[in-house]
Amino acid sequence: MLEETWLQELSELLYNSRYQLLYSVLLILIISLLKWLVNKFINNNVKDITIRYKWRKMTTYLSFIITLALILPIWLKGFKSFLTYLGLSTAGLAIALRDLIASFIGWVFIFWRRPFSIGDRIEIDGMAGDVIDIRLFQFSLIEIGNWVDADQSTGRVVHIPNNKILSCDISNYTAGFSLIWNEIPVLITFESDWERAKEILLSIAREESDDVEVNRTKIDQAAKKFLIYYGNLEPIVYTRVRESGVLLTIRYLCEPQQRRNSEGVIWENILKVFSQVERIELAYPTQRFYLKNIKERQGIEINDKYREGDENGN
């Protein structure tokens, strides 16, 4: 009985709103066509990718606002009928659309609090990448990592619902302080001159890392928004003993997108310099065996062989 009443009221609502529906569909089609023409003009005349993307997003939001402003007054005339239908289906809508509603709230949160912006490198719910698009219900990343080393792009585009930012932790590589600390472990043998090796690594790191004053300026800017403070921004080399040798770890600042490139340049310089220094050798996992009284045992074996030879000769 309740289902029949609900269907009857729904059919009456649709019949009474047929002109509003027709007007809304035509209006959406016309605005969509205008939006397509504007975007085509932008694509043909704006060469800069970033500016082109911003204009396209502005066109999308503007068309949405215009559509909403023109359609709402028409539908508000039948607001009482709409409330009647809404009262019968509120529970079902709340269950069916809860993810979409949460994603829309997430979109509002993204533009209000700015946890990330277009171009930021973030990690959320185990996925990491560069943000390339933000929409009403989802945002998109160019994936990094996974089967690719050193935070390089995999080429895959990952779409994540906006509601994830309300329930998952977000790590932002570039917000505020647009630099990260990177470390390069260099293992040398125990017989190497580790003090000389440490000096060489420190010199290479200083040559390849960014200017300290520039990094200091970036930190001062970030400190206006976040409680960020580093007493020392210069590269440093830490010393530690491992099973296979002396571990020297280079720690330096670099841009997130340049981590692999900077690491590759530093390693090339290390290999070139170490090849010219005699008392420095790179180490690798090894095992050493010590045999007690091995010389005495070798002597016994030799005497036994001579003795056997004499007996055979006699």
TrEMBL record:
Topology in membrane: Multi-pass membrane protein
GO cellular component terms attached to this protein's record: plasma membrane
Pfam families the UniProt entry points to: MS_channel_2nd
Organism: Iocasia fonsfrigidae
InterPro entries named among the record's database cross-references: LSM_dom_sf, MscS_archaea/bacteria_type, MscS_beta-dom_sf, MscS_channel_2nd, MscS_channel_C_sf
SUPFAM superfamilies: Mechanosensitive channel protein MscS (YggB), C-terminal domain (SSF82689), Sm-like ribonucleoproteins (SSF50182)
Entry keyword Membrane: yes
Membrane-spanning parts: 20-38, 59-76, 82-112
Residue ranges constituting the Mechanosensitive ion channel MscS domain according to the UniProt record: 99-174
Phosphoprotein as UniProt keyword: no
Subcellular compartments: Cell membrane
Key words, A-Z: Cell membrane, Membrane, Transmembrane, Transmembrane helix
Main localization category: membrane
A GO MF label: mechanosensitive monoatomic ion channel activity
Descriptive protein name: Mechanosensitive ion channel
